[in-house]
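Q: I have two molecules that I believe assemble together. Could you output structure tokens for the complex as a whole instead of separate predictions?
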Amino acid sequence: MSAQFRAAVNADCTEASNSFGAGAAAQMECLITDLGRMVQQRNEALREVTRAHHEALLRLARAAEFRDDDTGVHLLRIGFLAEALALLAGQTPEFAERLRWAAPMHDIGKIGVPDEVLKKPGAYSPEERKIMNGHAMMGAQILGGSRSPLFQMAAEVALNHHERWDGSGYPLGLVGEAIPLSGRLVAVVDFFDALTMNRCYRPAFPDSQALAMMAAQRGLAFDPWLVDLALAHAEDLIALRDHINRSPPEFGPMITQI
Amino acid sequence: MSKTVLIVDDHADIRRLIRMTLEIEAYEIHEAANASSALRMARELRPDFVLMDVMMPGEFDGLEACRRMRADPALVRVQVILLSAMGQAADRAAGLQAGALSYIAKPFSPLKLIATLAAAGAAVQS
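A: Yes, here they are, computed for all two components at once.
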């Protein structure tokens, strides 16, 4: 701060304090009390809006999942596991938390896949496979073009969560680090979580077997660095998953009860 | 269209604080420093509200200015709200008797003042 500027500020402050009488000082206290009350109300309102926003996202994600998965907890787990892996990968808490809410929407595009394909037992014909794979692009279309950083990330995840490290994924066939990190992170945790839950067509794989299957995809489906991180911290991630299952956070219970 | 408010107080700093409070809600604001110029400006500007201090030096005080405004048929649509450091029930009664829509003791909550004006404005419109 320059001396000149400081002098100007001092002069201004002196003038202000001289011109405020007792009545004005008392009025100022009222102003400040109201200001504090308003800040508090604003913070509460912001928290409420954020909660409602996140809840709406999860319910949207659940709408897509509703036809082939009877529980919303998988979605919550994907979010929290992706957040944890992002933190392990050295991402900022802001990025990681955003991914927590963006990741559950990765399969939202399935809402555009007809029942006869989505629910078909057995193997897909090439045509059906093409329709099924369209869910990544449809998800990006549903979520894309938003001003909200959260939706932008969600669109990125929806588009890229079936890309493979070796370039044989879809929809674009991106290779390695050309696949956005958000997509690579969600691909890993979705794979693990899907294997370790009961499905109508098979029981859950044991954790050890799921981890081995993940390790086998190191550098093929998945970013080898992220697989190494997940394997090195497998115990923590599994503990987190079990914790979520025991006590689904916030509105998790509400969602599963509906 | 923004509502017009005439702020009347002999203390410039109080006028400034009230102005700052009302600018939150985009009122068009005018100021007077005594009761007689308040009366003159009210006739000239026909504001939606006059926010007026009671005790002011001059020919007559805020209470009398309020009475004269109420007695002037040209000012029937002008709402007077009195602000005063005198907060006793008797002071309030005198203010309301003089024809004020509302009597607010100083110091006052800015949020309450904003709410009072908003409610009065809504009542006029309906």
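A: One point stands out. Helices of chain B lie at 12-23, 35-45, 62-71, 89-97, 110-125.
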